[in-house]
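Issue: ligand-bound run for FE2/S2 (inorganic) cluster - logging full I/O for the record.

Environment: standard queue, default settings, no custom constraints.

Inputs:
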Amino acid sequence: MTKMHIKLTVNGEPKEVLAEPRELLIHTLREQLNITGPHIGCETSHCGACTVEMNGKSVKSCTVFAAQANGAEITTIEGLGTPDALHVLQRAFREHHGLQCGFCTPGMITRAHRLLQENPNPTEEEVRFGISGNLCRCTGYQNIVKSILAAAAEMNAMKEAAE
Amino acid sequence: MNEMTSPTREERAAKLKGLGCSRKRVEDVRFTQGKGNYVDDVKLPGMLHGDFVRSPYAHARVKSINTEAAMAVPGVLAVLTAKDLEPLSLHWMPTLAGDKQMVLADGKVLFQGQEVAFVVAENRYAAADGIAAVEVEYEELPVLTNPFEALQSDVVLREDLDPAAAGAHGPRKHHNHIFLWEEGDEEATNQAIDSAEVVAEEMVYYHRTHPCPLETCGTVASMDKVNGKLTVWGTFQAPHVVRTVASLLSGIEEHNIRVISPDIGGGFGNKVGVYPGYVCAIVASIVTGKPVKWIENRMDNLMATAFARDYWMKGRISATREGKITGLHCHVTADHGAFDACADPTKFPAGFFHICTGSYDIPVAYVGVDGVYTNKAPGGVAYRCSFRVTEAAYFIERMIEVLAIELGMDAAELRRINFIRKDQFPYQSALGWEYDSGDYHTAWDKALKAVGYDDLRKEQAERVEAFKRGETRKLLGIGLTHFTEIVGAGPVKNCDILGMGMFDSCEIRIHPTGSAIARLGTISQGQGHATTFAQILASEIGIPADSITIEEGDTDTAPYGLGTYGSRSTPVAGAATAMAGRKIRAKAQMIAAYLLEVHDDDVEWDVDRFVVKGAPERFKTMAEIAYAAYNQAIPGVEPGLEAVSYYDPPNMTYPFGAYICVMEIDVDTGEHQIRQFYALDDCGTRINPMVIEGQVHGGLTEALAIAMGQEIAYDEIGNVKTGTLMDFFLPTAWETPHYTTDHTETPSPHHPIGAKGVGESPNVGGVPAFSNAVHDAFRAFGLRQSHMPHDHWRIWKTAHDLGLHG
Ligand code: FES
Ligand code: FES
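Outputs:
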């Protein structure tokens, strides 16, 4: 199959890949670019383990062709924080025990990150609805919701302090 | 030493972050940054991808397989069929239950999704193309999906078995029968029931479902032909067992096989078994000389690997008019699918189902379990429970409710008057178990009080009246459960897997500067072993948990162990950890005494140090002792500070709990809303309360799924109707309620630190709590039993059948 030449920006770095038209973005990320934070739990758009941000929106990268990401800005869990400067959400998930096996976590945090951009001050209900595209089999969500609410509060406090 | 500045004993203890500390998890640092290392993240140079051609039929003869077109597909390197595996005797493999299972279809297929051929290609896309090009000619055969019909039918499912010969667990009474397994005294039980004042009888079905961890199963096999070593990464809940089985099957000596369980994205029983994908990847790597990866997709996972439950449980329970239970009889028709691949200790073909007398003092009981072959996927794993314990708990907790109806009694009171009393422990159950410890009455009263039980019942009665008056269309259900688990398999004298005793192990090395590494025979799948085992050790040897590395899952480095499932890690490997720690301490005592120039008996342990008795200012900390162990010649003592312990538990542990679910049910839509869920767990000594609470939340959510919607359903010709996450219910954050957790603490008397294990209790207790809530809502309208899962349609149907739709 002829391959397409695709350029995209991943976590702020320009990347170029050759991909078959049918190649899914999750495979491009994981197999061509070695970005293995986003995971595969279903490949049918149900579980959200593969969630990344594409041009400022949460997408399930198992349901996006690499070709559709041509020219796009992609952010994955790897782009949210660094080992020395973790993102507030990354710290909050640890602090409030928002993960167990960790398989859903990259997608979950990436989704939560976008949710808090869309709605910086969500209620518990809004958080539950806002992450309902992301499945977790381990935690029962209670501590995930707690982590996200705690992160929101901390981010808002930081914003206030900066203003 | 200055009293003002030296830390108090409490401060020193707190610094250890030992038992009882809600220590933050060490694993999370990697996981939150996307730096976990799961099997699909393993990438080796030249690695190939393998995947299966699967059967579209539930029962068919395989007339021919033509691989020519597939081999012509660009990127396809090999297509394996049973014929290719036969010379290696790998076309069939033994199951954990003493049966055998086809690795690739050998003449026929017996369930939809069965593995027929294995395509090996350069990448997963080429493998998919190859699969599409394999031509298989099938001839359909009659399909049996109902175990009761299977036992009557002339259709022979397993033509490979001699119908006259006994199976692994005794005589077979029909060609589709696997075993009859019995426990207890049937005659005495029948006598007790037949002569009883009150008898309740019911068929309780626990439907087929699936553990469905978020990560599916997979492996990477790499045969290095230069040094003759086979390395296998995979989603293995029991890596050492996989190594031994791989060696026995392949003939490769065990020292030349290295099995690695990397991070595992949830297991819940799905990753205990050995699957055809593992075998085919290993063979393909040996054939091609290249690493081969196999990663199951979600449909394959739901259709082919490791279903759970599928127990038809016919119960009879008897009591006096006052409600004192006098006998329990249970007969189970167990649908095992096409091969008996249940993951139980080998001598227990129905697992620990005979814990089904539950929390109650029942003088006489009997259980008989008939295992049956059908055209469904093999499996029968313990989905977040100890072996068949969830089925047992569901059975007895439903029977209690049915008996309460029969007696016209409050179900909470009926439980209370039948609980095993605190002073009866250790308690010998009628079905042969010795319960280690419990205080059920205290837990029960605490739970009822916490939810305001009496007020709830009043509210419920008022609701029924309002409903009858036409003022509301919603009913209120109060789901009660008091469960007793049995975990920590187990004593080697009766628990083994394929002959391997179910002990577990821990090996500790203390480094000269006072930090340590400990390796265990278990493997975490999200339970947080790296965090909690360090805490056990910290309390035992006085080295801060933060200075202890825990490693599991690599058979080249970890001591042999039987793995993680059935909540056995804390009861067994946790005990091994404590015992190995005590060996360290024993040696440290000799070193400390030498350094302090006193007799061994003149020093005593104090949190993180040995002190001279009566002179606490004279001490040596564990760190100082470690340094001396490596750097000082101590007469009569070998250098170094290491220990290993293989722990064979004297008994199982028996965690228990009291769960109450308050549920609103809309009789017109069948929708439910969980207003309150209260979960009290007693898991003995609590190692890390934060982790325990997280385990309870997760297990309850799995229970919610099972009770309220999740199932592996088949149509009458054996098609799986719930093979994707569109149809197979996994609750989202939206459907999942808020849980209130609570605890009592009754230590296990025989466990070194008194811990019992908790990870599976919420699944065991949660399912009956949710289901009982549904039943209880309709009790006033005459409902005795309706089958799970209680999805909206089934609840609507229940309401309809009871005439509640006018
Ligand atoms: S893998 Fe993309 S949604 Fe599940
Ligand atoms: S932490 Fe395991 S799936 Fe969410």
